[in-house]
Amino acid sequence: MSSIVRMEEGEIKSFESFIRILRTLGKIDILLPLVEEEEISPNEYFKMMQSTQKKTRRRASKSKLTTKQEELEW
To answer: Which of 36, 42, 34 minimizes the C-alpha distance to 15?
Structure first.
């Protein structure tokens, strides 16, 4: 029994056979919606990248530290 007959009867056992049949029939493009990635706009990409970047903590400058130390000395 051929793979096509088995497929028509719902007895196909492997995905590989299914892919070979689609290629033979020239219908492999029917699977493209399953693997296509959704495109995002540049603005959406920018927002996504900003949200994933870590917020870096900034250290106080030395000049601020010295003024605070001077205030403490009073």
So the answer is: 34
d(CA 4, CA 56) in angstroms, rounded, equals 60
DSSP string, 12-48: ---HHHHHHHHHHHT-GGGGHHHHPPPP--HHHHHHH
- Please name the residue that has the structure tokens 């492997």: 14
Whole-structure pTM value: 0.40
Give the separation between CA 26 and CA 6, rounded to whole angstroms: 19
Q: In a structure prediction context, what are the per-residue pLDDT tens digits for the chain, which is 74 residues long?
A: 676 787 788 887 788 888 888 888 899 898 888 877 778 888 888 888 888 876 666 676 666 555 566 566 65
List the chain domain ranges: 1-35
Residue 8, amino acid: E
**Cβ pair 46, 57 in contact under 8 A:** no
